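Title: Prediction job returns without error message
Component: structure pipeline
Severity: low
Priority: P3
Assignee: unassigned

Description:
Job completed but the reporter wants confirmation the result is attached to the right record. Sequence as submitted:
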Amino acid sequence: MADLDDCGPGMPEPEFRREWDRATPAERADYMALAGQRIAQRMEVLEAAQERVACLDAVRELLVRSGAPPGMGLGSALVAGYVSAEEVVEAVRAVPDPLAE
């Protein structure tokens, strides 16, 4: 079977089907194992991005509640005394862990 990078979502279906039909059972198993690994890696990246967005949302909500002027960044809000580092840490820690759900 052609290299995994050559076979997959970008390959036209009929061409992929020909490659798949020519593959040995061991090659098919290897392909499926590698495809599963890639999916798992992409899911980890997605989960990390979702967690980052949730943390950013928590900080944004904290800034809004603190009365910081719109558009003021976290660093400026900390320096100006709108929020404390402790409040930021508490807000981020309160974000649910997507892996624990």
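Comment from assignee: result matches the submitted record. The chain has four helices and no strands.
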